[in-house]
Structures are given as structure tokens and as C-alpha cells.
């Protein structure tokens, strides 16, 4: 085989791989991209009940209620302009607390309650998830930089 | 006074780095031997200065000198000594200091042990290292000085995040950094070779040990991080495709490709330009990793440092380093052309396919990691790309990679002999089929893909063992001859067998734990017994426990199996006062076959405690496999061929010369 052919065959394999990867990526991105909404975003736009997304804001004070089964928790997430009710079945992350920032992933049910399948833990309790900070800034409730570390 | 000495040492190190970056480079270009000779002592001096600064910071942590802001914000007098020390790199400023310390460690190692390198090459390598150092030293001095004072000094520090107070995590960052920064050596060698305008097989032989060492460290670092997440975060996950994890995984993928392409350069004197490019890209991904972790641009469970100004500096530095390197590459690459002829289905062909697959996989991870960032910058939309994306892009690319990993090493260099390779792989097919049938029998009715995954990893392990057996002519020659061959086999051959089998074990662990995991979440009352994954689990109640710097509630669960007592498991829910935080310590009963994992949550409103139970088959194989891979890397590092430098000096250095690898 001539060097030219050899190089050509590798270029062809390379292109085929890239094409395959691109197709995989396009399909995967279509299905698995998760958008982020604040409670105000949800109030403004219709989100389909079966669409997965992330919800971020502050856990409203005095809103956390534990159901009788002991593993389901309901609470409200607020950006101080709008609020959304959330229900979560599972152990809450260690940093979950009223008045603190939270990001939850899940979908809306028929009644408009956000059913979270995952509540995200942050390593640092001083740390405000950037999306939550942004959501609060947008709703005009951002209080300086107290959420940011250092 | 002492912290100021640390600060001063950093300033001095910057001055030394500027000298080390410029004089030897000009000297090598103009042929001024005395300027070239500056490089090595300067590298050692810079290392000593940074080490002084680093240990002064460590000292400030150990004696809890809260007049230093960095200590006051991240330490506490009640912390155990180990975490006072690991607290040094548990924060942004300190971790940068560690980064540059390791950079200098590698630089000094080249200066001291690299005496077999041609002087101009060594000088150029060290001056490229110095330029990387200048960037990071400026970064430290301008934005992230660890020695800034706080007056008046507080009486008590704010404490280290309790989640980070863990032996696994104490050593996770240093290993990651040893890996990241280790790839800077490959980068510096690549740039030096581009400046010189030539790449020889000897060049690959000099680069490989550094790359191999970096790869070993990175493997350990990633495995430690994953292990920590498994037992510390309390939800039993071990990999999240989180941006920070991806940040360490991408250099690993590119570095793995680099290791393999350097073999082709060394053995066949071809694929030079590609190898140089990979060396540049691997280090670029390491810098990107630092950028992602340190700027907090991406939402992540790990994001604990966020400051856009720092992000901008690193981004500018990244563009300067990578852009400059790529321009140099574009100018010089055409001179590296070679026309060695080989058939597509040969060892070279297999290694090229491995490289194509690894880099494509790396690119999909990169895209998934950076896509949210681009979209946010362009449209302001906030999105997350989650595990489903990575599973459906990265996973399929790994299948052909694993298939060829078993075949490639059996192919001869240069010529095509696929039929011969397949004939020799009969044993591999047999092992794979047996594992598939066995899995099918044990897990009848489970996911079919998992059976396929187990068969695939058995194929990989089988292939690695067949290759070794072939080399020593096992069963085909008298035993004594096989034994002799086994003794004389180069260590790198054993290294490859170990590393490839290790990956097989990792994949088995991943497949098994993903496919056959059992999870349950429920309230358990005192005295209640449940059946779970073949065990009977009785909740005996809780008690309060006082730790060194926390209080905890400890639950007791008695595990029995068919009436036979097995063990008692005691998960904890810990409360740290400084900073106020609750963490859960899962109780794990690891066995080679499966882990039983129990985490205790909060008390229920009408009595009982929320309890999460997992049964995870083969999960420990993931880290055990990673360990085997690392051992493979280390065994390969001790290969004599890596210890000798330039071929001309091979004989002189054969007897007991230390390897040109510092931090082994």
C-alpha cells in the first residue's frame, strides 16, 4: 500500500469516527440537555409537565414539611418574586436548609408541583449556586455578594 | 514576620523564573554555553524558593496563625493535624502554591537527573517550564496571595469545610496536580523540540517516563476522588460527569493517547507531529481543568471557589500558552514529516485507531462540559448537560476501543497479520464467552447490555493475558523456557498487561454496579427488620457520639444472613460547628462481590429514621482496577529502557542510576 493510500485510509477512518461522534452528540444533546429556570421564569412561561429541568432559588423560610412516610419532603423555592412548591422523595443533601440556596432537578406534575428527583448538594455552605444568584439578581432581590466565597 | 518571608520568596522565585525563561533560551539559540548553563541551577533555586514559601504557609496552618487571612478563613484550632496540613491546599491560594511547587519539583528533577539530555534541549525544556511558572507566579502575586495579613487577627478561624476533612480528599488534590502538572513536562519537551525543529526516537524515550509518571498520578487522583465521592457524599455514586470530574478526566484521556502515540515515535520514528500536538493538547486540557475548577464558571457539586477576575487571568494565560504553542506547531510541524510505510492493520494502525478513539471521546466530553458555558455566553440561557449525554456519547466510543485494545498488542509492527492475531485470540474468545454465559446464568432476566459489557471486559482481560502468554510462549515451549522468557521480558510488557487488565476490571465494576444495583429508601423504626438483597437488616437504634470537632448521631444496624450474624453497620450523621454543617458518613461493608451501603438521614415525623440502603455488585472493582492500572504504569516506569537516557550513554548508566523521574 502506498503511503498516500495509507494516509487516506486513516483520514477516512478519522472522518467516519467524527461523523459517528457528531451524530451521537446531536441525539444525546437533544434528549439530555436540562434547562435551568427560576420560579419567576416558571411563572412567565409555560413549561410542559413532562419536560425535565432544573429549578433554583432559596428554600422559603418555614416551608419545609416532612410527610408521614418520613422520606418525602415538601418545600417551597422562591426567588423572592415568585414561589414554586417542590416535593422530593429521598434523603436531602447535607447542606439543605431553610433560607439557603438550592438547585433541584425534576419535572412539574399535573398540579404544577415540581417533583424533584434530585436535590443538589453544594460543598460549601457559603456558596451560592451561580444560577440562583443570577435568578435573584434578575428578580431584583440580590443583596450584594454575601453568597460568594472570599 | 515569617509569612512575609514566604511572600518575599515568591517574588524572588518570579525573578529567578524570568531569568530561567529568557537567558537559556537565547543562549541555546545563539550558542552561548554559559547562558545555557544557567537553566539547571536556576530551576533548582526556583524550586527551593517555592518550597520555602509552601512550607511557611504550612507552618502558619500548623500553628494556626490567624493573622494570615488564608489561615483564618480555612482553618480552625480544633482541627486534627492532618487536616490542618491538608487545609493548605484545600483552598484556592494554597492549592495554586501547591501547583507551582509541583511544577518546580518536575523542573528541578529535569535539572538534576536530566544530565543525559543534550544541554540545549534541557535548557529549552527548562525555559519553557519557567514561562509556565512565570504565568502562575504572576497569578499568585496579582490575584491570589496566600500570605495576605488580617489585622487584627481573629481569635479563631472559620474552619475547613467538613466534607473536605477526609483522608481520601486530603491526598486527592496533590495527586491530581502531580498528574496535571506532570503533563507540563511533555508540553515543555514538545515545545523545546519544536524550537529545535527535530523530533527523534530518543525524544520520545525522554518524554515517555514523564508522561507515564503523570498518567499514574492522575489515575490515582481520579480514583481517589471517585472513591471519596462514593463513601463521603452519602448517595453511593462514584462518578457524576460533573464538570470538575470531567476536567481531570479529559487530560487523562488525552494523556493516555499521548502515551500510546509516543510508543510509535520511539519504535517506528513516525507519527511525530501528532504526538507533539497531543502533548500540547494534553497540557492545554490540564490548564483548562485548573481554569474550570478555579474560576467556578460552571455549576458543579465541586464548585467551591468562584471569582471571575481569576478566571479571566487563567483564560488569558490559557490562550497565550495554547495559542502560542499551536502557532509554533503550525510553523514547525511540516518539518517533522516522515514517510515510514506500514499497513493499516498493524501495531501502528491499532495505536492510531486507539488515538483517534481516545481523542474523539475526549472531544465529546469537552463539548458536553463546555457547551453550557458557550450557550450561556451566547444566549444567556442556562442549561446543564447531564450524565445521559455522556453515557450515550462516551459509552459507544469505548466499545470499539476496548475491542481493539485486545487485538492491537498482538499485531506485528508494520505488516498486516490480522488473521494471525485472531487465531491467537481464540483463548480470549473462550474467556469472553464463558464470562458471558456465567453472567447470563447468575443474572437471568437482567439487562442484556450488561452481559455484553461483562463479556467485553473479559475479552479485554483475556486479550491482555493471551498477549503475555504469547510472549513467553506459554504451553508452546517447555516450562523452563517460558519461565526464562518471563524473567527476561521487559517490564513495560508486564506494565501493559497490568494496565489493560486493570481497565478490564474497572469496566466490569462499572457495568455490574450500574446494571444490578439495588437501592431502597425508607423509614426504619427501632427493632424493625427488613429483607434487603438477601440480607436481614435490623435497626437497633441510635446514640449520640462526640468526635474531635463534631457531634454525631450514630445508628446501629445488625446484618444477618439466613440467621447467621454477619456484622453490625454504624452509619453516622455528623454535625460540625465550624463552619456549621451536617455531613453523613455512610457505613459500607465491602466484599469482593458486592458492597452493602447504609446511610442514615433525619428522624421521621412519627418516629423512626430515614435510611438509605444500597447493594452494589462489584463496585470496589472500579478502584481496584484503577489501582492495577497504576501499578502497571509504575512497573512500566521501572523498565530499563526508561531509565537510560540518550542511547549513546546507555552503557554508562546501566548500573543503578536513578530514574529521571522525580516524584515517583
Model description:
The complex is a heterodimer of chains A (150) and B (664). Chain A has 150 residues and is of the alpha+beta class. Chain A folds into two domains: 1-33; 35-143, Nucleic acid-binding proteins (OB fold (Dihydrolipoamide Acetyltransferase, E2P)), CATH 2.40.50.140. Chain A has three helices and seven strands. Chain A has helices spanning 3-32, 39-44, 130-138; strands spanning 33-37, 53-59, 65-66, 72-78, 83-89, 101-108, 114-119. A five-stranded mixed barrel of chain A has the order 2-4-5-7-6. Chain B is of the alpha+beta class and 664 residues long. Chain B has three domains: 2-336 and 378-388, no CATH class; 425-516 and 621-643, no CATH class; 518-618. Chain B has 21 helices and eleven strands. In chain B, the strands form two sheets. In chain B, strands 3, 4, 5, 6, 7 and 8 form a six-stranded antiparallel sheet that branches. A four-stranded antiparallel sheet of chain B has the order 2-11-10-9. Chains A and B meet through helix 1, strand 1 and helix 3 of A and helix 13, strand 1, helix 14, strand 2 and strand 8 of B. Strand 1 of chain A pairs antiparallel with strand 1 (383-385) of chain B, so a sheet runs across the interface.
